[in-house]
Amino acid sequence: MTYTAPAVVIDNGSYTTKAGFSLEDLPSLVFNSNYMKHDKTQQVIIGDELMENNSEQQVMKLLDDGLIYDFDNIVHNWQYVFDNVDNNNPINSSEFPLVVTEQPWNTSKNKVNSCQIAFETLQVPIFSLVKTPLAQLYRCGKSTGLVIDIGSSVTSVTPILDGVIQLKCSYHSKYAGDFVNLHVLNYLESKTAINSLLPSKFANSSESFKQYYISRNILQEYKNLSLNYQIKDYQLYNHEFINVSDQQNYLENLFDPTLNKLPNIHIPEPSIDKPGSHGLTNLVFLALKNLESTLLPQNTNDNTSQNRYQKFIEIFKLLLSNVLITGGTSAANGLPDHIINDLRALTQKYFPNYPFSYAVQQIRPSNTENAEIWDRQFGAWFGACNLASMLNDNDEKSNSAKIALDNWFITKADYEELGEDLVAEKFK
After folding, report:
1. Could you tell me if 90 and 169 lie in one domain?
2. pTM reported for the whole predicted model
3. Is 313 inside a domain boundary?
4. Domain boundary, last residue among 232, 255, 278
5. Dihedral, CA of residue 19, residue 20, residue 24 and residue 27, to nearest 10
6. Does one domain contain both 16 and 90?
7. Where are the alpha helices (DSSP H) in 192-334?
8. Beta-carbon neighbour count of residue 190 at 10 Å?
9. What is the pLDDT of residues 72-84, one digit of tens each?
10. Domain count of the fold of the chain
11. Mean pLDDT confidence for 253-261
């Protein structure tokens, strides 16, 4: 069976939520993933404008470590999408398939919670959870590649072979965009009082709102200016200027988290048994070394082992020639080139017996400048849309709708009959 209605696709990031219909070229909604709950009315407040109008309230997060953890309130986020996705006109959630992205390290409990909200609260007819790196890679028309995703709260490295995520060789850490923001904020606070970074109307706002506003607005603006124009003076909201000529390259903290100290924050020394303690380059190294030990035979003397060895060489070459660097933070000027250069040097140093370094290539879904920026920000959403659009394929010869239903989607009727067992089977 095919669906005439397009799916609603939601990509919940720690920083922003991207949402829209699967057949659209761009998400129609891009809004702040945080929310407020009014301390008197208990009304849930979503959206930048409404949050700014209620700046005395506490700002709360829906995600931690890249995963939804507040399922009591994620329903308001998803309902907000259904209420606004059609040019700010509400649509009936029971009439539209729903696709939501998830990280590879998502838990079984979270998957069940997501299905409960989709089917029992929103009453959607069909639902799917799509893994973010897989969606990002499919967006590029690839089924094998190394996905390096640098988002707001999480940096992840995910090897994918023939459409299968190598979970045991996938790693993530907290050293991402928010970590960079801490360093930038620490630098700016050494130059001026924190209230100088805010419009005067927010001087009496809650501390959590101040942090939210500065991170979302001030720091983003400052990073764009300093990266693209290498400014020496930065104008504050009170029209005064501060000298920023001695600023450091704060992006280097992604590669070496211990490079610069932060007040009141302890950064542990990297440990081999704690992959999340490492910076970006080492995170990639750990993923590749673990993949090597997984694929490469211990004994290379017999013919079977030799064949496996040659296959390993072919897989590694293919993997490294399809490096996808994505996520909002990856749009920082010069960061992708830094990663690719590090990866080439890394393969030369730690894999000297294999001719890999020359093979390291970055893949890009699009060639135009604006399109590449969109792909870095919305790549997971685009890829999930590609999957969801299979439901609308009415070409009997392609059989796409059936393939999608059989492999990646759960219907409401099947969920009501089979429950959690079906969730565990479909969304491994």
Report:
1. no
2. 0.93
3. yes
4. 255
5. -30
6. yes
7. 207-213, 219-229, 252-255, 280-295, 303-320
8. 10
9. 999 999 999 999 9
10. 3
11. 92
